[in-house]
Amino acid sequence: MPGMIAVQSDPEVAGRKIVTLSQPLSSDAARPQIFSVEILPGRGMNIFQIHAYLPGKGVVDLLASPPLSEAIKALTGDELGNASFSFGGAILAPFANRIRGKLSADGKTIETKIDGKPMILPANWKGKNPGAEPHAMHGLILATPVDTIDLQSGADHASVTATLDARDFHGHWPSKTGLTIVATLKRDSFGFTVTAKNIGNDDLPIGIGWHPYFSFPSGHREQVRLKIPARERALVDNYDNVFPSGKLVPVGDLFNAPLGGRYLDDCFVDLERNANGAAVAEIVDPAAHYGLRIIGVSPEISAFQVYAPPDKPFVALEPQFNWADPFSPVWKGRDTGMKILKPGQSVTYSVRLEMFLP
Question: Domain span at residue 298?
Fold first, then answer.
């Protein structure tokens, strides 16, 4: 069987050529297969699109992303990187989800405490309702090009390794961080790792996540089923701010029925793990005979954020280290998933995708 290929090609996004990992389609027409992945090194290695073959439907796009030309327009001039978490699959670091703080007079930043240290973060997000509170959202690499890219092509895998010397994220985060991101396409799966290393002299708080918008191939959201491997759900003030209250409730039978018209924007915690220690979520689209496993390989993954608006044919299903607003006093000292690295220490985030026929 021909080998697998990793290449860089035009157009450029933020000064970096797009990376494509690909493999030949299987001769087995009854087997679902991920055969191509497009990644944006100019935007923190956003996993922009995943192309797959699905028996009975042919080629499908697993992620809800616009055409590349439209994406480039949206990303051009997007200094804070918000467009990067509006489609595809943005990698989130050094924190996922929301962080609240005191808003500056100009409304552009918040003052908050990160592991007890006063820090200034960009106030890059707020709800849509009048008076919604600006806050920091989804990390600090959304608009950041990586420093180096190395491609590998082989008989059984294609991969790209990127490095980013993030330092102190332009003064917004304690200590200094080095990131290494490795994305790999194999015969039966696609996955990636993000390794964060404390290259500074102070303690480094680190939270890593991923923000993929998974499409429903049938286009019929109401009959889609989700499986979220969690026992508890974090309550929020409302679905506009989506700020945690500090209270947890049992998940119960929330996912024992199709999505229907339900709205979700919730952080699910207290994860169940399989015999290998992984937390495995599933998306099943019965009308398309489609199933996808989102495998949180790293034991440090402690939450799945799920965003599923009823008027959209996708779900953002986000495995992440940390819970929403992880240093907030509402948690009253509870472990909210942030890892604290001593100088020289590192931690690795790892996620894998596998298709299946339900």
Answer: 5-356
